[in-house]
Inverse folding.
């Protein structure tokens, strides 16, 4: 089976994953790790980098093999490829820091089931060349990591009064314990979604206003 590749690379190939197609704030994908491991910046960064690695490696391999993967078994093939790289990440994190590995828990293994990665393999890597797939995957990974850091920084700052373990507020600060608990993830995610939707609507309104001015001139 032959897949026609589109090798045209533009700035949007990378930036779409950071803004217009942000996996968390726009697509609402990968919600389990977003809500579960963002109680600290370190956890958020580790999960973001791990997911980005799997996204890049699996997307590259799927793109390289796209002309040799039978259509009937492509989903099963994606899962095997993704699971292979997740296993590598799992062992690497365990070797680097057992404490971090215990904090992330089963969510490292659950990267296999992250619909963002499976979706990128099916929708993008299977239809584009390796270089374009890498750039798009890097943008998606950056957008996912930024979203995790947005949640992790707010939750750690308000829930513990620290950033990266460094005390920010004085001894008189009373931590908002709810922020490092699961409900805190929902609260902070909702606040960020409101901000992103407001910015999106503001940008669209500005475009409409500019179009109206140009049509009237």
């Amino acid at each position: 089976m032959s897949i026609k590749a589109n090798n045209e690379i533009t700035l949007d190939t990378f930036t779409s994953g950071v803004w217009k197609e942000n996996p968390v704030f726009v697509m609402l994908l990968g919600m389990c790790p977003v809500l579960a491991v963002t109680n600290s910046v370190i956890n958020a960064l580790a999960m973001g980098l791990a997911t980005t690695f799997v996204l890049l490696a699996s997307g590259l391999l799927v793109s390289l093999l796209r002309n040799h993967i039978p259509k009937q078994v492509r989903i099963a093939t994606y899962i095997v490829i993704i699971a292979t790289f997740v296993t590598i990440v799992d062992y690497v994190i365990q070797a680097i820091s057992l404490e971090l590995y215990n904090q992330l828990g089963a969510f490292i293994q659950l990267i296999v089931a992250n619909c963002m990665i499976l979706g990128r393999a099916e929708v993008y890597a299977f239809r584009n060349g390796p270089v374009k797939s890498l750039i798009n995957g890097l943008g998606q990974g950056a957008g996912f990591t930024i979203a995790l850091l947005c949640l992790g920084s707010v939750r750690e700052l308000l829930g513990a009064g620290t950033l990266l373990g460094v005390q920010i507020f004085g001894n008189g600060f009373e931590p908002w314990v709810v922020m490092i608990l699961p409900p805190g993830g929902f609260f902070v995610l909702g606040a960020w979604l409101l901000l992103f939707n407001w910015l999106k609507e503001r940008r669209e309104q500005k475009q409409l206003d500019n179009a109206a001015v140009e049509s009237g001139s």
